[in-house]
Amino acid sequence: MTGRATAGRRLIRWLTTPLPQPPPALRRGPLRPGVFGSRLRSTRLAGQLGVALGLTFGVCFLTGLLSHLMQHPPAGFAWPSRPIGFYRFTQGLHVVTGLASAPLLGAKLWSVYPRLFTWPPVRSIAHAAERAAVGVLVAAALFQVVGGVLNITRWYTPMPFFFTAGHYWVGWLAIGALLVHVGVRLPVTRAALTRSAMSARPGGLSRRGLLTGVAAATGLLTLTTAGQTLRPLSGLALFAPRRPGTGPQGLPVNKTADNAGVRALALNPSYRLTVIGPTRHTDLDLDGLHAMTQHTAELPIACVEGWSATGRWTGVRLRDLVALVGVDPTRATVVAESLETGGRYRTSIVAAPHVRDPLTLVALRLNGEPLHLDHGYPARLIAPNRPGVLQTKWLTSITVREES
C-alpha cells in the first residue's frame, strides 16, 4: 500500500511540475497583459452563465437521449404509447432548450475567452490536459448548437455525415466534458458565486445589465420558436421552419411523395397492403381497407426537428389488421414498410404497447378528407407518442411478429 501511495505522489508531482516557459519576448498581441480590460468579465459572471448553460444543456441532453431511445430502442426497452403528447412535449423542449443555449453559449465564451491567452500558455502537464479538455467541451458545444440549427432548417450540405448519429455521439462527448469541467471548476465557481457582486462600471454596462440582455435574448429566441409546437404561440414563430396550419390538409410536410419517389406506386390502381403473419397473410386493396370498421383519433405529428401539429385521422386500427392474420394483438410487434425503395426510415418497428393501443391506426383519411399524397396516400401509420419519422407513410406491407 505504501508503494502505491508513493507512486501516486510521484505521478502528481510529475503532472504538476512547472514546464520550461517561453521567453517573455513572445508575449505579444492578445498575450500582452491588460489587453482584455473589461470589468464585466469575472469568475462570478462566468459561473452564473455556466449554471444557466448547464441547465439548458442538461435538459437538452436528457430529452435528446429519450428521442434516440425511441428511434433506436435497445433490447428490453419499450416506449409507452401514452400519454399521447409526451414525445411532442419532450422533443419540443429539446429543440427549445437547444436554441436557448445559443445566446448563453455565446455570452459564456465571451466571458472566458481571454483565458485562452493567459501567460504562460501551459504551466504543467496537468494544466495542459485541463486546457485540452476545455477545448473539447467548447468544440462539442459549438458542434451541437450549430448542427442543431442546421438540422431544424434542414440544411445538411455542410454536414458530410448522418446528422442524427453525429448529434447523438457528440452529445455524449459534450456532456462528459461538461461534467469533468464542472468537477474541476466547482470549488472556484462556488466561491465566486457566494462573493458579493461587483459594482457597476460608471457610464458603462453593468454585470446585471449584461445578464439581463442575455436572458432577454434567450427568452425572445424561445418565444419565437416555441410556436412550432404550441399553437397559441404559432403567430410568433418567426424562426420556426414549420408551423401548425401550413401544408396540405393543414399539416406540415418534410418529405413529399416526389422527394420519396413513390408517386407512381402510390397512385397505382392495383395498390395492395399486405399483412403478413407467422402462418398466413392477406392482401387488402383500398376498398377492402375502407370496408373494415373505421376509427377516428386526434393525434399529433411530432417531428424530431421540434415542430408538431395535430390532425384528425381516420382509418383501421392496427390491432384489427394484426388479428386478421391470427395473432393476438396484445402479444405482437409489427414491422411497417413503405413504398419507398431506400432511406433510413422506409421501415419502422411498432412495439407491443403501440400495436395494442386502440389509437394506433393505418390512416386512410385526414381531417375528414382522403389522405393527401404527401401525407402518405393511400395508407400511412399514425400512432400516439411516437416520432414523426416513425409514422411510416405510403404503407405497402405490415409484418406481424408474435412475442413469446
Automatic annotation (TrEMBL):
- By what name is this protein known? Molybdopterin-dependent oxidoreductase
* Keywords, in A-Z order: Membrane, Transmembrane, Transmembrane helix
Q: Does the keyword Transmembrane helix apply?
A: yes
Which Gene3D superfamilies is this protein grouped with?
Oxidoreductase, molybdopterin-binding domain
The record ties this protein, via InterPro entries, to: OxRdtase_Mopterin-bd_dom, OxRdtase_Mopterin-bd_sf
Protein source organism: Actinoplanes flavus
Q: Which Pfam families match?
A: Oxidored_molyb
Sequence intervals crossing the membrane: 49-69, 89-111, 132-156, 168-188, 209-227
Q: Which residues form the Oxidoreductase molybdopterin-binding domain?
A: 270-403
